[in-house]
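Take a record.
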Amino acid sequence: MASPGAAGSIRLDKLLWYLRFARSRSLAQAIVAAGHIRLDGRRVTRSSCAVHVGQTLVLPVGERIEVIRLLSLPTRRGPASEAQACYRKLDADTPAAATPAISDDGNTVLANRSGSPIE
């Protein structure tokens, strides 16, 4: 069997397991089958879907949603540090996440294009 790096792609369920987003491959298959994963903006329900370097995944992690971009394909389920080196989180530096949608007094706060709040 060829290694994932040689083929240029890897199955989605295997990727989730290798990157430690699922504790087992069968749990990864269940997450995909339930339709909780988006690959480049499209909902994926087939765990055999091929994933390539550079693609973007949106997936649930605990109580939050993670958006990641694949930097390289993992060759095994190694330690967490090895798994984290294969992707980059995209939503950590989002300025909209740092700006509250509701102010302390309960009013809705919207931001204009310059980033200053409109009340």
